[in-house]
Design brief:
single chain; 404 residues; alpha/beta; TIM Barrel; 8-stranded mixed beta sheet; binds N-carbamoyl-L-aspartate; binds zinc ion
């Protein structure tokens, strides 16, 4: 199907990829195909996006959020359940999956919310969902949240863990160290994350969302748990307040420059790079809403950083594709390898652009990465079918009930 510089088994090789029924049948120097300009990487998996929709269509929809994902070289998203209404019953889960079936431009999966109202019957609900869909995880379970129903205490967590055989993803911030106020980095201390991780690790192993401190990262590295880092915690410190102003709030908050530099230097030791794509309109941001959009810009910014040696292509591909697939159980995703889906993103490395919110596809209409250098994919293939050509979306490719 394609020939070019393919990222295969940890390095670039000049080879061809043969595809049959959406899956890779052969990879090799002798395999023929159309020659592509640029490098062929596995398309990314973003295990942490908030695609809103339902009663928050003004911020984002599954359609606009997955369109943004496609333009950013992402082939599979894991949506988070803190929607309005919350995805806390099988009915709402099924309803949302039906929307995705009709509207999504990339493969779509959805985490289920653990709440104080459903925790006693969570095992029964999870069983019902699993009969119909691949459920990636319970989460992101909030140890701290303004909505009391979503704020789960450590005791509830302990009880659920002992009853459930599911991956649990945690938003680990301890309420004791979180105070209301703007900018929130002055009121949600690093202790909030460190204490929550410490306490959670005593309960079980988890996948920790968006880790932003050295101490929490080091504790998790020494455990059986896994963690993700986000582009914003790797690139933005509290100094960005001068540039972002009202838009600066994000949970967990931005940290000091030292902490940010440490996280970026230790990128190779993180398990996953995920965007925590949390779109809010500029008006919502002015009112202090926490979160940055990022599903479209994550891979392009990091491909650019890889060309400059800030991270290696090997680490990038591992954290944006291979590890998410392994940790979340997406068996046929994550690598350019025989037997896996032909989910590919082609990047022309000389094609450096400056990010401009007007050209992005999220409905929220702004980006904290304005003017950042990035290399956007020119072609994206979803299960062997071209979905993006010359940076333009082709027809809808995904029409499946249960992609995984
Ligand atoms: C998240 C959102 O907007 O859904 N925002 C964020 O800053 N990560 C929710 C949250 O974590 O508070
Ligand atoms: Zn989140």
């Amino acid at each position: 199907m394609l020939r070019g510089r393919i990222f295969y088994r940890g390095e670039f090789v000049e080879a061809g990829i043969e595809v049959e029924e959406g899956k890779i049948r052969r990879v090799g120097k002798l395999v023929d195909g159309r020659k592509v300009k640029g490098v062929i990487l596995p398309a990314g998996i973003d295990v942490h996006v908030h695609l809103r929709d339902f009663e928050e269509k003004h911020k984002e929809t599954i359609e606009t959020g997955t369109e943004a994902a496609l333009h950013g070289g992402i082939c599979l998203v894991v949506d988070q359940p803190n929607t309005k209404p919350v995805v806390d019953s099988e009915d709402i889960y099924f309803r949302r999956m039906e929307v995705a079936k009709k509207k999504a431009f990339v493969d779509y999966t959805l985490n289920f919310a653990l709440t104080n109202s459903n925790c006693d019957e969570i095992d029964i609900i999870v069983e019902k969902i699993r009969r119909k869909y691949y459920l990636p995880a319970i989460g992101e379970v909030f140890i701290q949240h303004n909505n009391e129903d979503l704020q789960i205490g450590y005791e509830t967590l302990r009880k659920v863990v002992s009853e459930l055989q599911s991956l649990i993803t945690l938003h680990a911030e301890d309420p004791e160290f979180v105070k209301p106020g703007f900018p929130n980095f002055r009121f949600r201390s690093r202790e909030a994350e460190i204490r929550a991780v410490e306490k959670a690790l005593k309960i079980s192993s988890f996948h920790f969302c968006h880790i932003s401190t050295k101490d929490a990262a080091e504790m998790i590295m020494e455990s059986d748990s896994t963690f993700e880092v986000t582009p914003h915690h790797l690139l933005f410190s509290t100094e960005e307040y001068a540039r972002l102003g009202d838009a600066v709030n994000v949970n967990p908050p931005l940290r000091s420059r030292d902490e940010v530099e440490w996280l970026l230097r230790n990128f190779h030791r993180a398990d996953v790079l995920a965007s925590d794509h949390a779109p809010h309109t500029p008006e919502d941001k002015k009112a202090g809403a926490p979160g940055f959009p990022g599903v479209e810009t994550m891979y392009p910014i990091f491909v650019f950083l890889a060309t400059r040696g800030v991270v290696s292509f090997r680490d990038l591909v591992e954290k944006i594709a291979a590890n998410p697939a392994k940790i979340f159980g997406f068996r046929d995703y994550g690598e350019i390898e025989v037997g896996k889906f032909a989910n590919l993103a082609v990047f022309e490395l000389k094609n450096v652009e400056e990010i401009n919110a007007d050209k992005l596809h999220s409905k929220c209409g702004w980006t904290p990465y304005e003017s950042f250098k990035a290399i956007f994919p020119k072609e994206v293939y979803l299960r062997g079918t071209e979905a993006l050509e010359c940076g333009e979306r082709l027809g809808r490719v995904i029409e499946t009930d249960n992609p995984v």
